Amino acid sequence: MSETISVVERPERDEAQPRLRTRFTEALGIEHPVVQGGMMWVGRAELAAAVSEAGGLGIITALTQPTPADLVKEIERARTMTDKPIGVNLTILPSISPPPYDEYRRAIVDAGVTIVETAGSSPEPHMEMFRDAGVRVIHKCTSVRHALKAQSVGVTAVSIDGFECAGHPGEDDVPGLVLIPAAADALEIPFIASGGFADGRGLAAALALGADGVNMGSRFMCTVESPIAQSVKERIVAASELDTNLIFRSLRNTARVAKNSVSDEVVQILAAGGRFPDVQPLVAGARGRKVFEDGDVEAGIWTVGQVQGIIRDIPTAGEVVRRTVAQAHDVLTRRLAQFA
Question: In terms of CB atoms within 10 Å, which end of the chain has fewer, N or C?
Answer without folding.
Answer: C
